[in-house]
Amino acid sequence: MARPSLKNFRRIVVKVGSSLLIDSNAGEVRTPWLSALAGDLAKLHGEGREVLVVSSGSIALGRSRLKLPRGPLKLEESQGAAAVGQIALARIWSEVLGAHGIDCGQILVTLQDTEERRRYLNARSTIAKLLEWRAVPIINENDTVATNEIRYGDNDRLAARVATMASADLLILLSDIDGLYDAPPAANPNAKLIPVVESVTSEIEAMA
Predict the structure, then answer these.
(1) What span, in angstroms and rounded, lies between the C-alpha atoms of 28 and 35?
(2) Domain ranges in the chain?
(3) How many CB atoms within 10 Å of residue 38?
(4) Using one digit for the tens of pLDDT, what is the confidence trace for 104-161?
(5) What is the Rg, in whole angstroms, of the alpha carbon atoms belonging to the chain?
(6) What percentage of the chain has pLDDT greater than the value 70?
(7) Could you tell me if 6 and 12 are in contact, meaning their C-beta atoms sit under 8 angstroms apart?
(8) Residue 14 C-alpha from the chain's centroid
(9) pLDDT of 59-108, one tens digit each?
(10) Which of 35, 69, 92, 108 is 20 to 30 Å from 193 by CA-CA measure?
(11) Taking each helix axis from N to C terminus, what angle separates 58-66 and 75-98, rounded to the nearest 10 degrees?
């Protein structure tokens, strides 16, 4: 089965992992990489497609700005770092997309926002209005208020929920992992990449 062409999709959600966006050693954004991605998104936008971005990186950026030490952070430290990082992350996306004449809007959500009906509809309406205005929604988990009990846990889950909420045609997950493997590639050097999953079988579910 061949991979589908992007030309077949109108509304596309792109999830950007923090490992791609942020240089963990320098604690700064990988500017050349992000600029290249912004160019790709601008091309899709220019073709009339609707693009949504789910972006990680607020805690990592906040940690860098605040010069916090390496290692695990306490909950309140993570929330404080996210508060600083969310401002930096929004500015960065505004700049790289603005260079292509594209406006963007920040949407911060928690797990509850997509599980409670009224909040779900409010978030969906905001996304729909931004897309109507041809602005790119930049969506992230609201780490400043989310606790372990009400967190998604990772932005892959958030991106899947956003894709459903926005009635997207395609979800693209960008990360430092090439794709689905039949075993954890970091632990098993013989793990094999599965380039295309034609149907979700019980074997695929067990593998995941």
Answers:
(1) 14
(2) 7-176
(3) 22
(4) 999 998 888 888 899 999 999 999 999 999 999 999 988 887 665 445 567 888 899 9
(5) 18
(6) 94
(7) yes
(8) 6
(9) 889 998 999 988 888 888 988 999 999 999 999 999 999 999 999 999 99
(10) 35
(11) 100
Crossing angle between the packed helical segments 117-132 and 155-165, to the nearest 10 degrees = 80
Contact 120, 102 (CB under 8 A): no
Q: What is d(CA 162, CA 101) in angstroms, rounded to the nearest whole number?
A: 24
- 171: which 2 tokens? 């979800």
Q: Name the CATH topology of 7-176.
A: Carbamate kinase (3.40.1160)
The pLDDT mean for the chain works out to: 89
SS3 for the chain is: CCCCCHHHCCEEEEEECHHHHEECCCCEECHHHHHHHHHHHHHHHHCCCEEEEEECCHHHHHHHHHCCCCCCCCHHHHHHHHHHHHHHHHHHHHHHHHCCCCCEEEEEECHHHHCCHHHHHHHHHHHHHHHHCCCEEEEEECCCCCCHHHCCCCHHHHHHHHHHHCCCCEEEEECCCCCEECCCCCCCCCCCEECCCCCCCHHHHHHC
Burial class from Cβ neighbours inside 10 Å (0-12, 13-18, 19+) for residue 155 reads: buried
Tokens, residue 5: 């062409």
- More confident site: 110 or 13: 13
Q: Name residue, tokens 């693209």.
A: 172
User: Between vectors from CA 77 to CA 71 and to CA 80, what angle results, nearest 5°?
Assistant: 135
